[in-house]
Amino acid sequence: MAFEAALPKGELSKVLRAFDAAAQTYDAISAVQRDVAQTLVAGPRAQAPKKILDLGCGTGHVTEAAQQRWPQAQITALDSAPAMLAALQHKFPGVRTLQADAAQPLPVGGFDLILSSMMLHWLPDPRAALAQWRRSLAPSGELHVAVPVEGSLGEWREACRQAGVEDGLWVFPQPGFAADLVESLRTEACPAVYADARAFLKSLKQTGANSARPGRRPLSAAVTRRLLARQQKPFTATFWVEFLMIGN
Q: pLDDT tens digit string along 108-119?
């Protein structure tokens, strides 16, 4: 989705390549992300926002839900991955798209509603991003964010721990990391059930979320095979998602 330039250049390009490569498979495999987007869009108090910004829009789960709830709103969809933006624009040709870095000052402002789903954890300083995004709100505007926190995908992390290997999954923010910045906060468990652990790992690749955290390499094929052989079927992977609201 969107990434801060402070990430090492290699890490930045690696993550962006992963999301770009997933643009054509994302919709078919991202049921959890779609459900989270719908929950996020159901939360705002705004009855008729005129200008909406979807930050880290991907292929458009939030944009779609926002269009359905507020059909008269002008929606801007922002992402760093050009292939994701192209997929969104193909589905929603009337939506303005913007390829930009959500960790940098936003080039546009005055939004009645800013929405961001399942993207903030990719940024190196999520708290700073929230403060920056708030500055792009119109008076009385609202910022609503859904972000997975530590504990997410714990089933796979535990499987790796029991096998004596360190998983390479991206690091999620700690629960309550922005509690002092927000007006409201709640956490929901969002589980997904896969036929087996191999299907879970495939889903990470097909949604672009398979990049190893900086400084870590993906598990080798041999280690992965051993891990997969130990897992029971079906395999459940749970996102713990914080829903944050900041008002202006």
A: 679 999 999 999
CATH for 136: 3.40.50.150
CA proximity to 66, closest of 78, 55, 56, 75: 75
Segments forming the whole domain that contains residue 21 = 9-149+171-191+238-247
User: For the chain, how many structural domains are there in total?
Assistant: 1
Asked if 102 and 55 count as a contact pair (C-beta separation under 8 A), the reply is yes
Outline where the chain has alpha helix (H).
9-21, 26-29, 31-42, 61-69, 82-91, 126-134, 154-162, 197-206, 221-230
* pTM of structure: 0.92
Contact 119, 2 (CB under 8 A): yes
- The answer to whether position 179 is within a domain reads yes
- Asked whether residue 138 is domain-assigned, the answer is yes
